Amino acid sequence: MANPLYGQNKADGNLDSVTDNYLDYLAGNQANLATGATVTDAEADADAAGSSAATIAATTLVPNALNFLEHDGGAAGSVYLPQAVKNTHICMEITGDIDQTGALTIFTRGAVNAGTAVVFAKGVVGVPNGATGTSIETLGTAAAPTSIKLIWTAAAADTNQWGPGTTIHFYAAKADEWLVTVYPISEGSGATGALTTSAS
Fold it and tell me: Is 138 in contact with 123 (CB distance < 8 Å)?
């Protein structure tokens, strides 16, 4: 008899059961992920400057994989999520020291998934620490979420919440919507840095 907790999907595209990928997302588990892309600081910065098909492709994370980001905040930078296929789990580990004020933008849409309506699912993203805006609510409603960007802007200091080793997990419980969980490793007090979102 099949285990009822695994592998079933509703006709409307929503998960109706708990999958291994979802459990890994909830736990922050990386063990079942393949090795994904490493987005260099130069690649992230080049996309912010041009946003061409080539630079977007170079900064698009690999699905069902552990990806690495070397961005350091010396200039504005970007990364892109791939198509949000239901039951996809992605992890992005920040390996750069983001201690300058160039904003990092995480996009749900780009040349790789053009023509889609991918958004961040409605919910709270980030970790409130009582000191800064490191936690936000995404835009729209649960039925019709509208956020397409998460934007992290650090301070020029060694006190930011998203330090090296911070991991950000993404999971598609339904097609075209990404859930997000942040596991920060702070530098110093972790009291600086601001997370914002945008629908355009």
Answer: yes
